[in-house]
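Field reference: sequence -> structure
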Amino acid sequence: MTGMTSALIAATAALAAASVPSTTELTVPGPQGAIAGTLVDPGGKGPAIVIIPGSGPTDRDGDNPLGVKAASYRLLAAALAARGIATLRADKRGLFGSKAAMADPSAVTIADYAADAHAWAGLVAARSGRPCVWLLGHSEGGLIALAAAQDPTGLCGIILVSAPGRPLGMVLREQFKANPANAPILTAALGMIDSLEAGRPVDPATLPPPLGQLFPTAVQPFMIDLFAHDPAKLAASVRLPILIVQGERDIQIGVYDAQALAAAAPAARLVLLPGVNHVLKSVATDDRAANLATYGDPALPIAPAVIDAVAAFVAEKR
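Structure field:
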């Protein structure tokens, strides 16, 4: 009996250990040094996803120093691991754990970020023996996923979450107009977007605060490159499975963006999620302040419908 009890205890311990995902810090080469990321792998041969972050100084967890502390990507990785799905999330070139990759994190293009996504997908596939890896792009990361998917090598498909369906200049105009607090700077903001779309940098000293600080000279070449891409046109040329996930309480990217992507890629699957906002949290009302409050709440879990949509799609396409 004692031997049987010991064997049972050992088996139970082994099962518990096997159910805990492994977390591994990895790097891929950058232009001047390493780009750093975190692989969360529950083991087995389930799907693997590279999570591509949104705009600005957003880190691998989905946070940034501009007030976003929702930990959306970290929570997403944990929830997907519970479904048997591995994830790799990384800091952008030149930022946070990837500071060594380049001295100026603004000196990048969408093509550079797309190359990094491919590098991570290749590394995850090589480490695990998986034949292909998914790309999940959140917000601006959706545009990067679309750009990367123009070369389907090593990719299972792409997942576009809260992703723009129009050129980013159009989206940015709408965001400025949607916030009544922007009224004093709205004319200058719209004029700045017009200039950058035309490929003309703007002297930050001519812009009212805080526009000059938000769009310094160093970042404007990236903005010019960013505005030149049309997500819908890119979606139309992707020859991989596409999932489009859009929260209906997203105050940054609208349902019409998701619908534009779906119209451009008729084979894509569109999933609209009531009550889900831009940082993938559940919001009970249309109140803007309540919505924004979730951006600073890492204790609030990812909306279960997001996990369900992603997990079901990648499992179905295996």
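Note: The CA atoms of residues 7 and 245 lie 46 Å apart.
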